[in-house]
Amino acid sequence: MTDPRLPVLAELEKKILWLASWTIHNANHLRGNEDGMKVGGHQASSASLATIMTALYMAALKPQDRVAVKPHASPIFHAINYLMGLQTREKLENFRGYKGAQSYPSRTKDIDDVDFSTGSVGLGVAQTLFSSLVQDYVKAHGWAAERPEGRMVALIGDAELDEGNIFEALMEGWKHGLRNTWWVIDYNRQSLDAVIREGLYDRFEQMFRNFGWDVVTLKYGSLQQAAFREPGGQRLKAWIDACPNQLYSALTFQGGTAWRRRLMDDLGDQGPVTQLIEARSDAELSRLMCNLGGHDLPSILEAFESIDHDRPVCFLAYTVKGFGLPLAGHKDNHAGLMTKEQMEGFRAANRIRPGHEWDLFEGLELPESQLRTFLAEVPFFARGRRRMSAATLPVPERLEAGIQPVMSTQMGFGKVLDEIAKRGGPLADRIVTTAPDVTVSTNLGPWVNRRGLFARASMADTFKDERIPSMQKWEFSPQGQHIELGIAEMNLFITLSALGLSHEIFGERLIPIGTLYDPFISRGLDALNYACYQDARFMVVATPSGVTLAPEGGAHQSIATPLIGMSQDGLCAFEPAFVDELAVMMRWSFAYMQRHGESEAQIMDPAETSWLRDETGGSVYLRLSTRQLEQPKREMTPELEKEIIDGAYWLRRPGPNASVVIAYSGAVAPEAIAAVGLLAEDRRDVGLLAITSADRLNAGWQAAERARQRGQHDATSHVERLLGPLSRDCGIVSVIDGHPATLAWLGSVHGHRQKALGVEHFGQTGTVADLYRHFGIDANAIVHAAQAAAPGRPVRHLKALP
Ligand SMILES: Cc1ncc(C[n+]2csc(CCOP(=O)(O)OP(=O)(O)O)c2C)c(N)n1
Ligand SMILES: [Mg+2]
What we know:
binds thiamine diphosphate; six-stranded parallel beta sheet; alpha/beta; 33 helices
């Protein structure tokens, strides 16, 4: 029995392809070309997925399912949402324009309900896998009980599978017993530049099966299947199977006459197969040859709906890039656009009258009422807005850090988490930690000992059972709160991204904390960037860092990470020197990670004291160190807390005659303190500025400056108030175990002369003292720089630089 939905779906597919094509054409030809640039359109890439996306969104998907769309299929995605009343004509007319519909579906910039924002190919694919693990985590902890399990679906370009992070994810998924994940490969055998290698489907298939996935191949459409049953049909099938990708694409582009010529060359005078070809007109022949599985609604629907288990499934769907458009199959079609003439032909074929291009039911053959009824009942959209929310968890007034007289920030981090685990409560129960094989070496050990590792099935710690002494309990259970990952940092950041969207994807708040070695942030940077772009909420704790990790060796040093912390949008970066600062930062972060700007007005109106846009919330990066420092004995006042969070405080306030101040960040605190001591006899009133967040200090300054430029003359930021009292000719020396540019802007705040010290070269090994001396960030170098920044009588304690 044929599926009664098919006629409607066929109409909708036509409409979706029209709307997507018109969106691109309109943006390109009609909106004007202010920049003289083509508004590229991904027309061909979109058309390739039109049938599959119609089948998924309009029929197969359920409200609990989530989809990562191949980024360059965005016009189809927006068209579907427009059809459902979730996207506006205005935004489509402004596709790729300022505040228009986005070129790649965006959670943060689009109004339609985007589940995952990709843009960098490969990331969205892996995100569905980790999202499925998060769903398992949420369910295993007894949350979202009333919500059915959804499928996490990725629509993937075949060339997208070149991205290594997909393979890293596959491996990780296998380790965790991945379920409920569908990946649909748009096997159009074309990438951006060219036609892909022969026989890739075979590699794909074997690979997925190796990792325990089911593979469903959608190669022949129902027209082809019927033709294969005709006399001579098997000969035609053999010809199709043997046809090289390049030739198939070229013939597809050329159309019916070319197909006939080529097929007759190869299969003419051969009895039944020749008759099979001759019985069809050019147009019918072209339709038959392009009727691949990925453009055949009946086969696609049947394939999706026949899955009655939760094992991961890869659908390998043969498609034609540019299907249904004059661009179909051409190897250069990736950025191809239809000419005005081609568009007129396409318009005629779709029976669209000028001026009615955006009308939902224009040109369709079925009655409008039937289509409307169908749309009103499409399951995927039936429960309305798909983005969820979750209540904010209370954060304790103060976090205990068990401060010892001498300790490192990394030890402090372990201690804070251990105390949270010990005390328990809602925050403790919703924290989930993860690390790429560096759990113990980043001090997550105590937390894991108390809270256990997560797995859907319990697994005992054999070492413990055998009574072999070990500091670590390594027990897995469904209640565990640490997700063990392999070494791949890409997987860490995509996991954090998936965990950090749990409140919006699954309606359950999680507080994800991921640890890694600071230098390896660069390894996962793209995933970190898109995690932030999607507005996922998490804490990254990176330790050890800088050249201060001396015993770890030169190859593990990080130089650029403070600049990453400053420049990464959506990520607020701190670098504490002392553990009491760290406890304040972590407490604030747990609240900040849960904040959500309510309105545009709130976002545009930052707190006037700091000029930071804290209302919107975001993710947090803590750059920590293994260097053990003597800890200050002091009371943590609300004023000091606020300054730590705003980015800086005077550890030693400069006097009225200060000719120089030292500004330091992080583990070099002892050198900065020592330098102030050395300077004391020869420079009066020297100030010592502790910078806890170069990122926030700078952001506040930038925001205040912008506000002043827009007429709000009384706007002043935290750093402006800190440095304001310094006399005009006071010098500043900044020092950080990281790139000097991190703090080199301080002098520009009020026009003070500045010397910026830091690390610029990679890989030198030695002790901390060796390296600080080598890079000129030790006390002696600071004093030297202070003398240069604040000329006066020679500093007596200054040793000659080696
Ligand atoms: C990480 C990354 N690198 C490069 C690009 C640019 N890019 C966008 S689509 C594409 C080709 C994709 O080919 P395929 O995955 O086969 O999709 P198709 O267009 O054939 O549907 C490239 C190179 C990107 N978006 N992200
Ligand atoms: Mg492709």
